[in-house]
């Protein structure tokens, strides 16, 4: 490359970095981030205990991702628990991915001889590769992955997947007599593929992509030439397949531990195929028209269990089913004239398969997610490069080389400027949880999940009247769901409407008693965490919700009694201490604190009984009152 071309990868890195800067101000996200980074100490360091945890844990919903955890260990060692530092490392890795995209696309264009073999062709390929890399790296669809710290497990495997593809293309470049170097590059490719799956098993479709690259542009599918038959090419992929099978087994084991795999009896093959078809076209639509991007895309059809139930021929999916069939038919029809179209299409489907909905692993009503498209949409980069070169060639025929270059450069710069602006705006939304979920509600006003989450955030911010509005609307949309009722309880309690809060709790218990016990424990833990942070108002509110959902939770009853005691509301405190002791008579703290309350009320005999019991259970409670005989 000429000197100026050497600056193009740096330009890709710089412009991608600038576009995402607004998201660095965001706190840890409400979902996943607290459990993974604030409450979890397993990743904090590079000692033997931390390394053992990283390589043995299935922390994030049964996901095995030790190399991603290693990057978070480095985050912690450098930044502590500052979310901006974690997010900065997300951004740096994403920009590095953009640079790798540049080199992969330039290699593909060179192998395809797009733009011609001369100096002008090399110049065109360099600029087209830079445009393609920025088109991928600056696209607003990438904001969710960069801004959400827990999504590091999408950035890291993509980095290694790109390295694997680049090494594979280098191994098979047309350079006769380079056998030793070829084996070395193949070893790098296999190693990078293994690292990708150790970061998260997203790139399990990569061996299929490599086979398709053998077809075009490498041109290695030639049964007439020795060593170029399909059987030989498959044999060459044995190392990849062994790693893939191992990763699939580990992934299946992790999912089984999480208990989140959905059997076919709940969501059948037809519905899974429909969701996969929907997702494959949805992400392409958002690539071409990135409007209405949001964190949560709720399935418009929800059954009683809140599971997506769509069909290939319903109103939602039928147009996309037709487009899916048409795209596949076009690729097959033009295979001889334009093999690149089919290769890109099938590569996209292979990379999308693990996150398309075919293998459902969570009871979720989310039908798509921007983060799920991070790896599959790598194919949009070479597609963009091919489109730019074809546009330039068409303009050359009409306007001449110089004017065509100016028009092509102007159009490309304008497109990237729009993408950069949209990305910056989307990144700004991530600077606040309320902005993120408020935008979700704006985009999908009929989404009960978005409204329930917004109500939760408003409750967290003591904006209970606004939370009540969102929670009521969420409950209206999904009357069989308990989730909106939890926020209704919090809002009513925050507004001092205890009777209304209790009524909602009883309704929730009637709907799903088991879910309420789990939710009660969750709110209890959140209340305890808030108390540790010193936010006693939030701690009391969350613990009240826990008690309403599960009155038999002794820890929640005790904590609520303690919170009332510190506020001088002794009658209410006594009631909750007694309820805690009814469930767990051996709670010495509850006995002791109850004794203090009873003493202050002049009920000495009862106080002595509880204090002496506290001393019997825990001798460290050794006060004169505790030593007295009841």
What does this structure look like?
Helix 14 (269-288) crosses helix 15, helix 20 runs antiparallel to helix 21 (464-477) and helix 26 (554-566) runs antiparallel to helix 27. The radius of gyration is 29 Å and the shape is elongated. 69% of the residues lie in helices and 1% in strands. It has 630 residues and is mostly helical. A two-stranded antiparallel sheet has the order 1-2.
Task: Note the main attributes of this structure.
30 helices, elongated, 3 domains, Serine Threonine Protein Phosphatase 5, Tetratricopeptide repeat, 630 residues, mainly alpha
What would a concise description of this structure say?
With 630 residues, the protein is mainly alpha-helical. Helix content is 69%, strand content 1%. It has 3 domains: 411 residues, no CATH class; 107 residues, Serine Threonine Protein Phosphatase 5, Tetratricopeptide repeat (Alpha Horseshoe), CATH 1.25.40; 75 residues, Serine Threonine Protein Phosphatase 5, Tetratricopeptide repeat (Alpha Horseshoe).
The biggest beta sheet reads:
2 strands, antiparallel
Low-confidence segments, given as residue ranges, are none
How many distinct beta strands? 2
Q: Count of DSSP helices? A: 30
Mean pLDDT equals 87
Q: Residue share in helices? A: 55-70%
Rg estimate, integer Å: 29 Å
Q: Helices and strands: which structural class? A: mainly alpha
N-to-C terminal Cα separation, in Å?
92 Å
Oligomer: single chain
